[in-house]
Write a structure and sequence with these properties.
By secondary structure, this protein is of the alpha+beta class. The protein is 27% helix and 25% strand. The strands form four sheets. Strands 10, 11, 12, 13, 14, 16 and 17 form a seven-stranded mixed beta sheet that branches. Helix 1 (29-47) packs across helix 2 and helix 1 crosses helix 6 (266-276). Pfam families: LigD_Prim-Pol.
Length: 293
């Protein structure tokens, strides 16, 4: 029988705690749960009021990996859910609002992916995101070069950007915005991706065409679409090692000369929080949200 744990008055059955989920390092499910409990104070504000899609990997990254967008069967009745608009008709999704819900979700063994809008106003985007995805032999080092260009370009429009690793091979740029629909934000993001390609034609690609990807950084602007989600800050990723989609400083981006410099793992995050706090905290402050030009 799975051990029962009480979290802020909620009873949780936590299963298979000794299972190794990250074979390259022996990182277990118990360690996954401990990681999420450790980062809960900074992770939860980035999850609250955002419908969550779960990319589940209950047997580790080498097992079955699948998306769960609707409320999973067996979800406790105290976990908050909400009706979410979709083109094929409304659906009901999970909102991870508190520590018990976070630990319940972590027990599913899942990456957390969230939209660029809040459930209270799904018609209005509150964030813009650029997913910088390198095509080999390009690496995150090349993503950093593109990120610095995009940061300056956004700043010229009065928008302050922040960076985090994807937790895989790339980099994410995020900024707080206001007063625009997801369609408008997508249009603006595409325009900047096109500009970046014109400015750095040997390095940047704004189209998803696979045959054009080798050696270039694909600036994926399409994740601003209302239906799409992006890896939430501080989520673990389904990789051989417990890599995290972790905030990084612009100094780290500018100084990145080797891909492993920005490969941040679960054990790296608590010390970074002590040193930096939540580098993405300004995204949560409406005063930092800029209007699109």
């Amino acid at each position: 029988m799975a051990p029962i744990t009480e979290v802020e008055g909620r009873r949780l059955a936590l299963s298979n705690l000794e299972k190794v989920l990250y074979p390259a390092t022996g990182f277990t499910k118990a360690e996954v749960l401990h990681y999420y409990a450790t980062v809960a104070d900074v992770l939860l504000p980035h999850l609250r009021e955002r419908p969550v899609s779960f990319l589940r990997y209950p047997d580790g990254p080498d097992g079955q990996v699948f998306f769960t967008k609707n409320v999973p069967p067996g979800t406790p009745d105290w976990v908050t859910t909400a009706e979410v608009p979709r083109s094929e008709g409304p659906a009901r999704m999970v909102l991870v609002q508190d520590l018990p819900s976070l630990m319940w979700a972590a027990n599913l063994v899942a990456e957390f992916h969230t939209h660029q809008w809040l459930i209270g106003d799904p018609e209005q985007a509150d964030r813009i995101v650029f997913d910088l995805d390198p095509g080999a032999p390009a690496t995150i080092v090349h993503c950093c070069e593109v990120a610095l260009w995009l940061r300056e370009r956004l700043a010229a429009d009065g928008i302050e950007a922040y960076a985090k690793t994807s937790g895989s091979k790339g980099l994410h740029l995020l900024a707080a915005v206001r007063g625009a629909s997801s369609d408008r934000v997508s249009e603006y993001a595409k325009g900047l991706a096109v500009e970046a390609e014109k400015a750095m034609p040997r390095l940047v690609l704004h189209r998803m065409t696979r045959s054009l990807r080798p050696g270039k950084v694909f600036v994926d602007w399409s994740q601003n679409a209302a239906r799409k989600t992006t890896a939430t800050p501080y989520t673990l990723r389904a990789r051989a090692e417990p890599l995290v989609s972790a905030p990084v400083t612009w100094e780290e981006v500018a100084d990145c000369r080797a891909p492993d410099r920005l490969a941040l793992r679960a054990g790296d995050i608590a010390p970074r929080l002590q040193d930096y706090g939540d580098l993405l905290a300004p995204l949560l402050d409406p005063a930092h949200a800029g209007p699109l030009p």
